[in-house]
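Why this split exists: single-chain examples teach little about how molecules sit against one another. For that reason, every record in the complexes split bundles all components of an assembly together and asks for one structure covering all of them. Below is a record exactly as it appears in the raw files.
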Amino acid sequence: MNLTLHVWRQAGPNDKGRFEKYEARDISEHASFLEMLDILNEELVEKGQEPIAFEHDCREGICGSCGMVINGVPHSKQKAITSCQLHMRSFKDGDEIWIEPFRATAFPVLKDLVVDRSAFDRIIQKGGYVSVRTGNAVDANATPIPKTDADAAFDAATCIGCGACVAACPNASAMLFTSAKVSHLGLLPQGQPERYKRVEAMVAQMDQEGFGSCTNHGACQNACPKSISIEYIARMNRDLMKAKLLGSKDD
Amino acid sequence: MELNAAIPSGPIEKRWDNHRFEMKLVNPANKRKLSVIVVGSGLAGASASATMAELGYDVRCFCYHDSPRRAHSIAAQGGINAAKNYQNDGDSVFRLFYDTVKGGDFRARESNVYRLAQISVSIIDQCVAQGVPFAREYGGMLANRSFGGAQVSRTFYARGQTGQQLLLGAYQALARQIELGGVKMFPRHEMLDVILVDGRCRGIVTRDMVDGTVRSYTADAVVLATGGYSNAFYLSTNAKACNVSAAWRAHRRGAGFANPCYTQIHPTCIPQSGDYQSKLTLMSESLRNDGRIWVPKKADDNRPAAQIPEGDRDYYLERIYPSFGNLSPRDIASRRAKEVVDEGRGVGPLKNGVYLDFADAIGRLGAPAIGERYGNLFDMYERITGESPYEMPMRIYPAPHYTMGGLWVDYNLMTTIPGLFAIGEANFSDHGANRLGASALMQGLADGYFVIPYTIGNYLARGGLDPVAEDHADCKGVEQQVNDRIQRLLTASGKRTADSFHRELGRIIWDKCGMARNKAGLEEALQKIPALREEFWENVRVPGVGADLNQELERAGRVADFLEQGELMCRDALDRDESCGGHFREEHQTGEGEAARDDERFSHASVWEWTGENQAQRKNVEELTFEYVQPSQRSYK
């Protein structure tokens, strides 16, 4: 199939950026969306032009590297996939496709479709862990965990940190990302000692990074490639409220 | 090149304990003054960085991703082995040790494997304490499942995302240390060389992948946790950025490279669909519990699967291996698939796959029951191929997945360069010629959490490490070489993309040094690869400049290294004139078509030594001795 692409090109953080138009020719319907970009990029390189910079790595939806806004929707309008899992059979010959980076104040564009998501790492650094040193652990079966708790913690822990939730949110809020980690650890016995201190510190960092507030649009869960539920945001808000009432002590 | 494996003496079950006791310690006040560089942030790199920082060392960790959480360990699906014996089914440290040595076709170092089996139990404890959400039974206890090459259930798992959950555990431990100031993290930094001062490794040269700055970082020791080299084949299940450059640059500075021909080809991956294909996707080995593998009896049978009657089908694994059938080990299942496809009996539009058919299981148990077991995998398959495995058989074919070879290390995980260590898939030590399922995660975390934090202390405690300034002449010299190489890539001004060379290289290695190898083919590859390398340097085109985010430049540098390392893979495969595990030389097979080892001549690790540009490497040998497991012929009939 043949396609017309409008791709965001931006030389660096200080460049204004603009859409540029490209033609992608003879693309197989079995190719992935990123393979379609690979083909276009090889043509550009052969012509001595700079290829479109975009991030990707595992190409099977787990590393969280890839992320672009495709026709206005992060990771495309298909449900529960990453950009790398989108295949060209979702398009038809002659389609026009608009491709942009994830946009948020806290995710500055580095080049073309590549953005800086290091704010997510800094949120985790404020408490997205259990403070246990290597070699201190008791036997793994010493603490039974009800299967339902373990499953709920797992559902939250599947977050791949891609940032689609932020890109989808009209407020560019990182509440879904932050609440997923707060809930993963808060649902497990191992996470209890630091539960309230954790939520306060992580939310404070989230605010400091310039992410917006949650106003219950729910766009984040629709864009999430792992279908993480906004119920975790409600859960995080309860923990945060409790932390404030308790005066943020670890109890 | 001197190869002293430094294996402790005494009975095997006491060696690690005794060694730990005998190692020199560094007092806490002095640890702060000792610095370590870790390259890579996967399971091995992240766990090592976090643990060494906990101990008090001054740690800097480098990775080429935007975040340490993206390392390829994250894509591991199946699980992690540990000799916990929670199932009470007769597992023990000795049994895990035995299975791993045998699974590796008697080409691994016994002492290292025994230590790995011992440590395996602590890994599970550690990960649970971190909050890793392993699968549990309704009683709240940890669940287990079985994997290939073992008769006990010792695999711990987190749905089909075990690697992700383990990596996030290590990443979070690392994040904690970054917050506490124990680790300084350098994301988007690619290591392009190592720095030696007075014969010891004292630092690395990196390129900042955002602004292109090339500079040195010095330390008292360097740890490479940079993964394997399956992407030498171009198409593999590895992530796109996985590369051999860090290990290869170390090799060129004097680190021995061991057993490069030991590569694992995983039997169940989605076949290639066209020339544009950028990578291959694994379908978990667990599918072989209920799926039946078959191809048509006749070559070029173009009927759809459903129209091929039972009598015209060849369930070849069930036919050749009646007792193991569809659950034959990885290396054997892969070779048999290649055989039938080579006979022209492959299926699919490109005739490059075999069927993995669930029709019988669906008929017996119903689609909902099968969906419960494999639903996520079926969805993943359908997303990629557009075909539903509920309605038609899956098409699968083997693909490069893991590399057992890597930098040679001694018992302390130190390479032949003093002060340079290699951990995880980047080293060669534990899996011999074939790795068992669910053992890669185990090894990465064993090395990172429990081995290197001790052994590096023993090295550092011996002292003699005067500070090296980052503008030391030896640093500047290496920086100059790195810059020259970047310039050479940027100014080649040829006509072909780096990827086009990579695809061509991958095709040669896959054809001549893939699932089956022979003398003539390997000799042909050893002619073709140097010629391709020469063309690369004359005809590659890298647009843009060095002082910018330049993904083509990154790619070209990695391809250049694969063009050298791929040649060594073939040289090693030619030299190893026997078959063992994943290394199958067609000249050496039993009457039944299985790998025939030659223990007389090849019970050793081949350790290759760099001798200079465009010169054949020199082979050194570490003899392997087996005191506890007697080498025998593996049989799965």
